[in-house]
């Protein structure tokens, strides 16, 4: 995939997309008790959805998969601190990420929730056709690399492992 094969999401587009995504969730009748954001890319969308859905319980789970532009580990890996799955017991949970690319991250987190939650649904800004998981809610579909407004600039501090996103 060439660098020119990118889809750019700007802050104004993010505002429109997150409100539309929240409206899709609300119109479906699903009322999450908890919004669970997958860090790092899903944190900003999760916060926006939690506000729009008037859900005050916002949890996070850290998963590493991407190491660079279209470069990833073999499998996604949960990173500490680990969420206690019993905190999700009997809750309606909306799992939020920025994109369902391969779908493996969403699958990992959904499997983590299984057996604890009353119901789990997934929401992403973008889904890609190759995703092994069909998100319950998606704002758009693309097969391009997506540049998000929160990761378009390089980090201001180099911690020795910063990946281009």
From TrEMBL:
UniProt xrefs under InterPro entries: PRTase-like, PRTase_dom
Pfam families: Pribosyltran
GO molecular function, one term: glycosyltransferase activity
Location of the Phosphoribosyltransferase domain: 11-153
Coiled-coil intervals, chain numbering: none
Keywords: Glycosyltransferase, Transferase
Gene3D superfamilies the UniProt entry points to: 3.40.50.2020
Name under which the protein is recorded: Phosphoribosyltransferase domain-containing protein
